[in-house]
Design goal:
By secondary structure, the chain is an alpha+beta fold. Helix content is 23%, strand content 33%. The chain is built from 6 helices and 11 strands.
Length: 230
C-alpha cells in the first residue's frame, strides 16, 4: 500500500504539471473550490477508494492494483515556458490590526503568464501570493482577496505632496510589531511614515522614530483579485 506522503507527492506533482491550484483540483473533482482533498492527504489522512479514483481521473492518472501511473497530459499549455508558477503563502495579510502568521509556509502555486508579469514589471523570482484578511482596505481589497506581491520593491520613497495631489499612495505588504498587514504607505519625510486604509472607518496610523526603524516591508502589492460572492 502506498504511503500517504508518497501519494500526496505523486498527486501534487501532477497538479503542478497541469498548472492547477489545489483548489482547482477540488473544484474539478468534487465541485468545491478548496484544497482540502489534497491537504488532508498531505496531513496523513488516507482517502477513500472512490475519492482517490476521482482525484486520479481529473489529474489524468490511472489507478490500478499495481499502483498509480500517469497518462499523457491533456493540458500542456501551462507547462510551457509561457507560465510562471507563483507560490501561495499560508500567511494572511491583515487589512486591519495585523495577523500573526507562519509566513514561510507555501500551500499552493498559481500559474501566471510570464508576458503579463513582465508587462507590469514583476520578475517571477520576486513574486509571491498571499490572502488579505479584514475589511480596512475596502472597497479596494476585500477579505479573502489574493494579493500578488513584488518582494523586490521594499523601499518606500519619500514623497512630499502638494495640497492638489490626489494620487493614492501605493499599497504594500508589511510587518509591524511582528504582525503581517496590508496598507497604503505614505512617507512625507525620512523619519515619518503614514499607514492609511481605504475604509473611512479606519483612521491613519502615524509612525515615527523607532516605529519607522522597526517597520519591515515585505513588498509592494501589484495586483489583487477576488470572487464576486453576490
Amino acid at each position: 500500500m502506498i504511503e500517504t506522503s508518497d501519494l500526496f507527492a505523486l498527486l501534487d506533482q501532477r497538479r503542478a504539471e497541469l498548472g492547477w491550484s489545489q483548489a482547482e483540483v477540488g473544484r474539478r473533482a468534487f465541485g468545491q473550490a478548496d484544497g482540502s482533498a489534497l491537504q488532508n492527504i498531505r496531513r496523513g489522512s488516507s482517502p477513500t477508494f472512490d475519492k482517490l479514483q476521482r482525484l486520479c481521473e481529473v489529474l489524468g492518472l490511472e489507478l490500478s492494483l499495481s499502483g498509480i501511473t500517469a497518462k499523457p497530459l491533456s493540458v500542456p499549455s501551462t507547462q510551457s515556458d509561457d507560465f510562471a508558477h507563483i507560490p501561495v503563502h499560508q500567511a494572511a495579510l491583515a487589512a486591519g490590526d495585523g495577523a500573526t502568521n507562519d509566513a514561510d509556509t507555501i500551500v499552493d502555486h498559481l500559474a501566471f503568464r510570464k508576458s503579463w508579469l513582465s508587462q507590469i514589471g514583476v520578475s517571477s523570482a520576486n513574486a509571491v501570493l498571499a490572502r488579505a484578511w479584514g475589511d480596512s482596505m475596502l472597497p479596494s481589497i476585500h477579505c479573502g482577496d489574493m494579493l500578488l506581491i513584488d518582494r523586490s520593491k521594499r523601499s518606500i520613497p519619500i514623497r512630499r505632496r502638494s495640497t492638489k495631489d490626489r494620487r493614492p499612495s501605493q499599497i504594500y505588504a508589511l510587518l509591524s510589531e511582528g504582525k503581517a498587514r496590508v496598507k497604503r504607505i505614505e512617507r512625507p519625510e525620512s523619519g515619518l511614515i503614514i499607514l492609511a486604509s481605504d475604509n473611512p472607518a479606519f483612521g491613519p496610523e502615524i509612525l515615527t522614530g523607532p516605529q519607522v526603524d522597526d517597520l519591515e516591508i515585505i513588498g509592494k502589492v501589484v495586483w489583487w483579485g477576488h470572487t464576486n460572492r453576490e
